[in-house]
Amino acid sequence: MSLAVDLSSKWLLVSEPAPHVLHIELARNPVNAFSSEFWRAYGALFDRIASEGRDVRAAVLSSAIPKLFTAGIDLGDAAKITTGGLSGSGPSDGARSSLSLLRDIKDFQHAIGAPERCSFPVIVALHGLVLGLGVDIAAACDVRYAADSTQFSIKEVDIGLAADVGTLAYLPKITGNHSLVREFAYSTAMFSATDAKDMGLVSRVIPGGREEVIGAALKLAGVIAGKSPIAVSGTKRVLLHSRDHTVADNLEYTAAWNSAALQTQDIPETLAAAKGRRAAKFAPLRSDAKSKL
After folding, report:
1. CATH number belonging to the domain at 12-225, selected among 3.40.109.10, 3.90.226.10, 3.40.50.20, 3.30.390.10
2. What span is annotated as the signal peptide, if there is one (predicted)?
3. Which of 54, 86, 239, 72 is nearest to 153 (CA)?
4. Domain-by-domain residue ranges, the chain?
5. pLDDT tens digits, 38-74
């Protein structure tokens, strides 16, 4: 039985196109607008995959809608921001309203940042329109591929707020052109896949559309899934630590991490497989994991 069993829900389609690889598709017609129900389900899905110990070693995130990745936040939910928060409780004064909004914003950030909490890499395949929240979603993934016709916009200023779910936190860390990031964030101007690659937001621009970029992302996911899960998960953890710490701090962290990780059986298995000219076979990360649920 597939690792994807029972994971699909109303607006999220999950399949296992290759061993140890999940394909997660956003599927809320007509434009993948994120209501509070949708983004909560999105975060819960990634956290569930991690907590259940499914033997997933890479995932691809994409849109099931041919013409776009997402139009961003549902405007109905956006309107609630100024009326006491998404809970709809409508506190009677500004101080209480701010506390309600603080909880909503932090919950939203936690949900959209869920791919970062996974032990496995998440590769996002972008195509069509990637507006507002779509940039937040992409920024929280490990690897970002875009079809060559993809159009982006950091849209939040157009609805009267600073992007607060991840874009402004991630982009200065993951891109190399701060001037270009600020230009697009302040102006909300549309920018192309080539612009996104120039600033460092995406690593590859794939000729074609939805099918081609998903195919490229799945190919990379298959390569990653064939590597030692101890090595890949450790690499992800160390890279995340490096982003937010000094070189000296990261070297200390890596030494502590590898003092345990180097005891893995994945190393002799990798060497034996190379010597025998065969594919390596690795155990799941967790002893309670089930390869097929």
Report:
1. 3.90.226.10
2. none
3. 72
4. 12-225, 229-276
5. 999 999 999 999 899 899 999 999 999 999 999 999 9
